[in-house]
C-alpha cells in the first residue's frame, strides 16, 4: 500500500464525470515518466516483503477473539515510532483496507547479498515486537489470511457495531471495519455504485457429515429492509450450498504476503514480471491459508477469488449479461485477478504465449505507440486503462503532468493483479519495480521469511541463470483455477514448462508459416504445445528425479556458483528445505492445518460451522505457535515439523 493522497473524495455520480479526464492525464503522466526514466539504471536487486497483520482483541471471559478496530490509532503511534528510528533497517508501517489491519515492511529495502536474505526473518520478528509495544494488553497481531468469523453472527469486532453502514450496505459487515481514510470507504461505495449492485461472493461450503443438504444459510437476514440492496440476497445473489458475502471488506479484509523487487532497468523489470507471473498460481497453492469465511468452513483453500469478487465493479454490460450500450467493453475479469498479458522484450517471449484475447483501449494504445511506446507495453497500459478511476479527489483533479503521476497511479493502483509492473515514482531514486502479489500470509515469521527468500532466490535464477518459465498465459489462468481447490498443493497438477533453459536461444525461430516452429533445427507443427506439461507442485519444486530438476535444485545450482560461506548457506537451506517439504506434503499448508483443527475441536458439530469458541481457540493456538510454543499445539509437527520458529 503506497502513500495515500489526501482530499475530498467525490461520490460516484460526480467522480464518473471525470473518468476520461483522469485517463487522459494518467496516460500523459505515464508518457512523461516513461520518457524521463526509460534509461534509468539502478543498483541491481533491491527488494522488500510486505506482511499484512490482523490485530486481535481477546475477550477471555467470553472466549471471543475479535478484530480490534483500534489499529487506526495504533498506526499513528507506530508511524511516530518509525520516524524516531532512522538507523539501520528497522521497520515501516502502512495502513490497509481493514481498520484492524497493519502492513509491515522493512524500513529500508534488502540488497542483493545472500546475507541480506538472512535478515528477513529477524526483521519480521522485530515488527511484531514493535507492534506489541503499542498495543493494549489484550491485543496481539496475527498473520492469518482470512479471519474465520468476519461477518458471522454475534460480536466479531472490538468495539461492536451493527452492520448498517451506507458505504458497503452489507447485511453482515459494519462500515466501521473499513479503514476510515477517505480512500477506502469511497472505494467500497463506488465499486457498489458502479456495479449497480452489491458485490456478490459465493464460496462453496465445505460439506461435512452434518452439513445440511442443500445448505441454505440460516444466518442471512433475508428479510432485512434498510437499504434497497437488502433484497439482493433473496433475489439470487446468495447461492445455495455456498457461503454468501456481500462486501469489499470480505476480500480486501484478507491478508497476504507480497514481495516487491527493483530490477536494474526497465528491460529486466519486464522480464521479471513475465517470469514471476507463471509462479503466481503455484505459490498461491503452496501458501494456501484461507479455508474459512463468515463463520463457515469453505471448500476452497485460498483467498484469491474472494478478493476478486469483492472488488468486481463491472457493470452488467461489462460482465456480458446484457448487450453493450453505455459501457465500452465486455471485460473477462475483475480488477483484482491474474494478469492477461506478458510484457517482456525478451526474444524468448513468443507471440503464442500471449494467447488471451486482450481487452484494451485502442485509442489509448495508439496514442502510446504514437509516442514511442512499443506494442506490448502499450497494450498492457491500455488494458489497465479499460477501468474507470474509482476514487477521485476533488483537490487533485488538475495536475501538472510533467511532475505528478497521481492520475496514472489512480488506475494503476486499483488494478490489483497477480503481478504489478511499477514505473519509478517521479523525483525519487527508486527504479523500475515489479510486485509479486499472489501469496497468502503464513502464521509464523519463519514461514513468511521462507517464502520471501524462496522467491527472492528464484529471481536470481531467472535473471542470472536466465531460466525460462514461459507457458501460454491461458495455462497460467487454468493454474489459478486449480490453485483454489481444496488441497491443490497435493492433489492438483499444474501446467509448467518442461525445459527451463533454452540452449542456443538464437537458433529458435518462428517462421510463422502454418504455425510451424523451428527449434534447434527440429520443426514442430504444434508451435509451443510441446514445451509444457502438467506436473504436481512437488515435481515443480523438488523435481521428478529424471528429466525435470525442480526449482529448488536450480536455486542450489545458483548458490553453488556463488561460493557462499557455510553459515549463510545453512541458513538458506533451512528455508529451502521447508518449501520443499511443503511441496511434497511432509508439511501441511495452513489451510489444511486450520481445517483439521476446526474439525477436531470438541465443540465442532461436523456441520461446517465455526463457533465463537472454536475461533477463539484457533486464533489463540496460532498465536502460541507463532511465538514458538510447542507443547499443547495440536498437530504442530504436521505444519512445522521440527522447525523452531
Ligand atoms: N490484502 C490484499 C491481498 O490479500 O491480496 C492485498 C492488498 C491490497 O491490494 N490492498 C488494496 C490496495 O489498494 C487495499 S484497497 N492496496 C494498495 C495498492 O495496491 O496500491
From TrEMBL:
Q: Its pathway?
A: Sulfur metabolism; glutathione biosynthesis; glutathione from L-cysteine and L-glutamate: step 1/2
Please state which protein family the record places this protein in.
Answer: Belongs to the glutamate--cysteine ligase type 3 family.
A Pfam family it matches: GCS
The protein's Enzyme Commission number: 6.3.2.2
GO process annotations (BP): glutathione biosynthetic process
This chain belongs to which protein, by name? Glutamate--cysteine ligase
The top EC class is ligase
Reactions this protein catalyses = L-cysteine + L-glutamate + ATP = gamma-L-glutamyl-L-cysteine + ADP + phosphate + H(+)
Q: Extract one GO cellular component term from the record.
A: glutamate-cysteine ligase complex
User: Which keywords has UniProt assigned to this entry?
Assistant: ATP-binding, Glutathione biosynthesis, Ligase, Nucleotide-binding
Q: Name one GO molecular function term.
A: ATP binding
Amino acid at each position: 500500500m503506497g502513500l495515500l493522497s489526501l482530499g475530498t473524495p467525490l461520490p460516484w455520480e460526480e467522480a464518473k464525470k471525470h473518468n476520461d479526464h483522469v485517463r487522459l492525464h494518467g496516460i500523459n503522466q505515464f508518457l512523461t515518466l516513461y520518457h524521463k526514466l526509460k534509461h534509468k539504471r539502478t543498483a541491481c536487486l533491491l527488494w522488500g516483503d510486505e506482511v499484512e497483520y490482523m490485530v486481535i482483541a481477546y475477550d477471555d471471559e467470553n472466549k471471543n477473539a475479535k478484530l480490534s478496530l483500534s489499529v487506526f490509532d495504533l498506526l499513528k503511534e507506530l508511524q511516530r515510532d518509525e520516524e524516531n528510528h532512522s538507523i539501520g533497517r528497522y521497520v515501516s508501517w502502512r495502513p490497509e483496507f481493514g481498520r484492524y489491519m497493519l502492513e509491515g515492511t522493512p524500513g529500508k529495502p534488502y540488497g542483493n547479498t545472500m546475507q541480506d536474505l538472512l535478515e528477513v526473518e529477524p526483521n519480521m520478528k522485530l515488527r511484531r515486537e514493535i507492534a506489541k509495544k503499542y498495543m493494549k494488553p489484550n491485543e496481539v497481531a496475527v498473520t492469518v489470511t482470512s479471519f474465520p468469523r468476519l461477518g458471522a453472527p454475534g460480536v466479531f469486532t472490538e468495539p461492536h457495531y451493527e452492520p448498517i453502514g451506507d458505504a458497503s450496505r452489507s447485511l453482515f459487515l459494519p462500515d466501521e471495519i473499513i479503514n476510515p481514510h477517505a480512500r477506502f470507504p469511497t472505494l467500497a461505495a463506488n465499486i457498489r455504485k458502479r456495479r449497480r449492485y452489491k458485490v456478490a461472493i459465493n464460496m462453496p461450503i465445505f460439506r461435512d457429515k452434518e452439513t445440511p443438504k442443500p445448505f441454505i444459510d440460516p444466518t442471512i437476514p433475508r428479510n432485512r429492509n434498510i437499504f434497497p440492496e437488502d433484497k439482493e440476497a433473496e433475489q439470487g445473489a446468495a447461492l445455495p450450498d455456498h457461503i454468501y458475502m456481500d462486501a469489499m471488506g470480505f476480500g480486501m479484509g484478507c491478508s497476504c504476503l507480497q514481495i516487491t523487487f527493483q530490477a536494474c532497468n526497465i528491460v529486466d523489470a519486464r522480464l521479471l514480471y513475465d517470469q514471476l507471473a507463471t509462479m503466481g498460481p503455484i505459490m498461491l497453492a503452496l501458501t494456501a491459508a484461507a479455508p474459512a469465511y463468515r463463520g463457515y468452513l469453505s471448500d476452497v483453500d485460498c483467498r484469491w477469488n474472494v478478493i476478486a469478487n469483492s472488488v468486481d465493479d463491472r457493470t452488467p454490460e461489462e460482465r456480458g449479461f446484457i448487450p453493450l450500450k453505455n459501457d465500452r467493453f465486455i471485460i473477462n475479469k475483475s480488477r483484482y485477478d491474474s494478469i492477461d498479458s506478458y510484457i517482456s522484450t525478451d526474444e524468448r517471449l513468443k507471440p503464442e504465449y500471449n494467447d488471451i484475447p486482450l481487452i484494451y483501449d485502442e485509442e489509448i494504445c495508439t496514442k502510446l505507440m504514437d509516442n514511442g511506446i512499443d506494442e506490448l507495453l502499450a497494450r498492457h497500459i491500455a488494458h489497465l486503462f479499460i477501468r474507470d478511476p474509482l476514487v477521485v479527489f476533488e483537490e487533485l483533479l488538475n495536475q501538472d503532468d510533467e511532475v505528478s503521476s497521481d492520475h496514472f497511479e489512480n488506475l494503476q493502483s486499483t488494478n490489483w493483479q497477480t503481478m504489478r509492473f511499477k514505473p519509478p515514482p517521479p523525483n525519487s531514486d527508486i527504479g523500475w519495480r515489479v510486485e509479486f502479489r499472489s501469496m497468502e500470509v503464513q502464521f509464523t515469521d519463519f514461514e513468511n521469511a521462507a517464502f520471501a527468500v524462496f522467491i527472492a532466490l528464484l529471481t536470481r535464477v531467472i535473471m542470472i541463470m536466465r531460466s525460462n518459465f514461459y507457458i501460454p498465459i491461458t495455462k497460467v489462468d487454468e493454474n489459478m483455477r486449480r490453485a483454489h481447490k481444496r488441497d491443490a498443493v497435493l492433489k492438483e497438477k499444474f501446467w509448467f514448462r518442461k525445459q527451463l533453459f533454452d540452449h542456443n536461444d538464437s537458433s529458435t525461430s518462428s517462421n510463422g508459416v502454418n504455425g510451424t516452429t523451428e527449434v534447434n533445427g527440429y520443426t514442430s507443427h504444434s508451435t509451443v504445445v510441446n514445451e509444457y506439461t502438467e506436473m504436481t507442485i512437488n515435481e515443480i519444486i523438488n523435481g521428478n528425479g529424471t528429466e525435470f530438476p525442480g526449482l529448488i535444485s536450480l536455486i542450489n545450482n545458483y548458490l553453488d556458483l556463488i561460493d557462499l560461506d557455510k553459515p549463510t548457506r545453512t541458513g538458506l537451506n533451512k528455508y529451502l528445505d521447508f518449501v520443499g517439504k511443503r511441496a511434497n506434503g511432509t508439511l501441511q499448508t495452513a489451510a489444511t492445518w486450520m481445517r483439521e483443527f476446526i474439525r477436531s475441536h470438541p465443540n465442532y458439530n461436523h456441520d461446517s460451522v465455526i463457533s465463537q469458541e472454536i475461533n477463539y481457540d484457533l486464533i489463540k493456538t496460532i498465536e502460541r505457535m507463532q511465538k514458538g510454543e510447542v507443547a499443547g499445539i495440536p498437530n504442530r509437527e504436521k505444519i512445522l515439523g521440527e522447525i523452531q520458529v
